[in-house]
């Protein structure tokens, strides 16, 4: 009986420890990572992720809301804006290596958070990475790998502490006009997204809704404040990029055309 009780106590202890993320040290930092566009349709708009680094606790990981399962219907579903995405966690070293291999850039913005706020963000990300929480229904404009990181920050530390500047452009472009900039060299993708998303593309987004694009999220974080102080305290270029130099691959065009022809 004593042995059984000890095993039960041990199992409860293991489960409790697994459910609680480690307490971050004073050296910990939380950063927004913004990645430049790639060659494939799903990477044409760039990418955003969040880094948690704590040298004292030997933690350096990236929380990535852009994880998906690639199948034969992927390009069609992507253009239609209906995909199941999920949160995943990888080492920072592996994350950087993958973008280095793709010759894509990474810019890091270290956030100006106090110790309590860092822990709250980390706790939220860790909770969101639980198997029952990590999947979500991707929405091209309103719920994607970029807008999710804005939401993480607001939901973990409170919307009353963060103020985003008004970044809306004078000519007030529509969603369609904003994404067209990224689709110049990808006519099949442009056609498919226009066809799949339809009239919602013509809505004029608010400044807050601009953050569906990674570079706009980066811009918004750079101009935002927390408790009246700049949200970003440091910006670093981790990998250089030449900008929008992608080309449309014939394979992507054929895959997309094939999916849309079904």
Report on the architecture of this protein.
The structure is a single chain. With 262 residues, the protein is of the alpha+beta class. It has one domain (23-254). The protein is 37% helix and 22% strand. The protein contains 9 helices and 10 strands. The chain has helices spanning 2-19, 74-80, 92-101, 115-128, 147-157, 175-180, 187-197, 214-223, 250-260, and strands at residues 29-35, 47-54, 59-68, 83-91, 106-111, 135-138, 162-163, 225-226, 229-230, 232-239. Strands 6-4-3-2-1-5-10 form a 7-stranded antiparallel β-sheet. The protein has a 3-stranded antiparallel β-sheet with strand order 7-8-9, with helices on one face. Strand 8 and strand 9 (229-230) form a beta hairpin. Mean pLDDT is 82; it is low at 4-18 and 244-262.
């Amino acid at each position: 009986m004593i042995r059984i009780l000890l095993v039960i106590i041990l199992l409860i202890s293991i489960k409790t420890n697994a459910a609680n993320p480690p307490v971050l040290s004073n050296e910990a930092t939380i950063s927004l990572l913004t990645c430049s566009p790639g060659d494939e349709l799903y990477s044409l708009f760039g990418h955003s992720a969040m880094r948690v680094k704590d040298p004292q606790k030997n933690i350096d990981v990236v929380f990535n809301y852009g994880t998906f399962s690639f199948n034969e219907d992927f390009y069609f579903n992507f253009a239609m804006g209906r995909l199941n995405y999920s949160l995943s966690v990888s080492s920072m070293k592996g994350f950087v290596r993958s973008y280095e291999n793709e010759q894509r850039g990474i810019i890091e913005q270290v956030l100006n958070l106090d110790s309590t706020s860092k822990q709250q963000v980390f706790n939220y990300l860790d909770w969101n990475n639980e198997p029952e929480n990590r999947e979500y229904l991707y929405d091209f404009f309103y719920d994607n790998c970029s807008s999710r990181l804005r939401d993480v920050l607001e939901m973990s530390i409170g919307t009353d502490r963060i103020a985003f500047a008004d970044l809306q452009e004078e000519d007030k472009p529509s969603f369609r006009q904003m994404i067209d900039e990224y689709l110049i060299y990808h006519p099949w993708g442009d056609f498919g997204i226009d066809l799949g998303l339809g009239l919602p593309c013509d809505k004029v987004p608010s400044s807050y809704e601009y953050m569906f694009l990674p570079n706009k999220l980066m811009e918004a974080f750079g101009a935002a404040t927390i408790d009246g102080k700049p949200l970003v305290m440091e910006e670093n270029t981790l990998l250089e990029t030449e900008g929008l130099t992608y080309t449309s691959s014939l394979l992507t065009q054929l895959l997309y055309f094939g999916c849309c022809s079904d």
